[in-house]
Amino acid sequence: MDSRLSARSLETLLGPWRTREPAYEAIADSVRLLCLDNRIAPRTALPAERELATRLGVSRTTVAAAYRSLRDSGHIESLRGSGSVTLPLGGSAPGRFSADEGVIDLQQASPSAWPGLAGAYAEAAGRTASLVTRTGYDVVGRSGLREAIAAHYATRGLPTTSAQIMVTNGAQSAISLVASLFVSRGDRVVIETPTYPHAADAFRGCGARLVGVPVVSGHGWDLERADHAFRRAVPTAAYLMPDFQNPTGGSMSAAERVAFAEAARQVGATLIIDETTAELGIDRPETHPPFAATAAGVGGVSIVTIGSLGKTVWGGLRVGWIRAEIDTIRRLVAARTAFDLGTPEFEQAVAEQLFPQMPGILTQRSGLLREGRDAAVETLAERLPAWDVPRVHGGVSLWVGLGEPLSSSLVMTARRRGLLLSAGPRFAVDGGHERHIRIPFTVSRHTMERAVDILADAWADLAQGVPLEGVEPLSSVI
Ligand SMILES: Cc1ncc(COP(=O)(O)O)c(C=O)c1O
Which of 53, 260, 446, 460 is least surrounded by CB atoms within 10 angstroms? Predict the structure, then answer.
């Protein structure tokens, strides 16, 4: 057993779990979902039955029945002396599928590879004889690639030198590295809610206390709450996605950008700006230069920008980067070796070849994402007209309002029908978002239509469940 979950922590993770009858199955399903999306790690001890029952305000028999159901489905085992412990989910555990079973996996919002990528790999492969004569890795990255990234920023309106760039293994390692440098245990970090969950995990891993600022589809960033968060919490850092925010797809207006830069400047917080999705425009009404260019007018604010080829080219390339002041890059170089020793030279050589072709690559991405977005919006409007489906102008996903706090139940029900999604609470900073679900539109029209058919059937399944106290009967919204 690796760690122990208190009844209080499990209650927080469960959120509003009372979404269906019987109560023990509602608890069991919520725990299954937490295991499936790794919010509860394998080999975690669950709280004792009596303790959890008191916390959740249910009888001990209910919790005992929930644990029995979890045992029967292979999610936990109960051992004399150590209580109930979650199990690693192997191929046989129910709810675990593979793509070749015809399952649609929308847990990740990963566009397929840019079609020219195989050719770029082949071209780089022709040069491997000379590549392998070099060390093959270094902490800051290949100079040609850093120059290409710097030139790309300059084209987008943000003058940059290659000394301001460090190449990383995707944006995720950039986020973890930057978090480790700027955040210490107990520090406050302002973060959007909903947010990109693996970034929240990285900050939590450094011991940060996250302070959520709501982003609402169609309404943007809650500037009043942001102002309050900066002034009251005095954060050391803020992590933001100003363009095509994941998961809402929203983009900050110029005024919102300036407001965040100003708020950060006043308290001396570093802005960690994740622009992984920033160039994924479909039909954006307004184009923005990188956040750091807009914020330059504010002056005196510390900004670290993170980028990646993960969505524009392919996630499997694992090439991302950090753009920062030269001093910060030096500090990051010193901190990096504890994590890894660099990005593989071959992938960097491939990436370097791609930058000159970026305008064409982005046009292809835009077409691909337009097809997915239009398919999602049209089929959802047709099959699930009561849901609130925002019209986004880019990015990778829709943040759909369900009207009812049933996101986790819907995800579990859809899963049984072969559609894998992440529930709204996975994107929350401090609980909530049970009324939303993220629907990535990074798939073909055909796949999206099948996914929405499954969602509509799963929603109908839920409607047949018996309503509970405090939850409106679902049938009233269908
Ligand atoms: C906003 C955001 N940042 C970072 C990442 C991680 O990107 P990478 O694959 O480059 O590590 C993702 C991937 O989904 C993302 O959506």
Answer: 446
